[in-house]
Design brief:
By secondary structure, the protein is an alpha+beta fold. It has one domain. The protein is built from two helices and two strands. It has a two-stranded antiparallel ribbon. Strand 1 and strand 2 form a beta hairpin. The longest helix has 12 residues. It is extended, with a radius of gyration of 16 Å. It starts with 5 loop residues before the first strand and ends with a helix.
Length: 73
């Protein structure tokens, strides 16, 4: 699994960084222009700690999460 960001140019998605291989099936999740989200006050410390862990490299790859989820069926 890969995670990529990009921008729509002339109706097509231009991916930042290395190009994705031809034929790759992708899912696009587009944020609304002014879209925001609110974190309840009681969850904010947990979110901040999660962001700090990710910054320190203490994260699980998305592919591993998907693998674990598929294994739990």
């Amino acid at each position: 699994m890969k995670l990529a960001t990009g921008t729509v140019v002339d109706g097509k998605i231009v991916v930042d960084g290395d190009p994705l291989p031809d034929g790759l099936v992708v899912t696009v999740l587009a944020r609304e222009e002014a879209e925001t989200f609110e974190v309840p006050a009681e969850l904010e410390p947990e979110l901040l700690e999660s962001l700090a862990q990710a910054s320190r490299g203490e994260a699980v790859a998305a592919a591993e999460v998907v693998k674990r989820l598929r294994g739990s069926r």
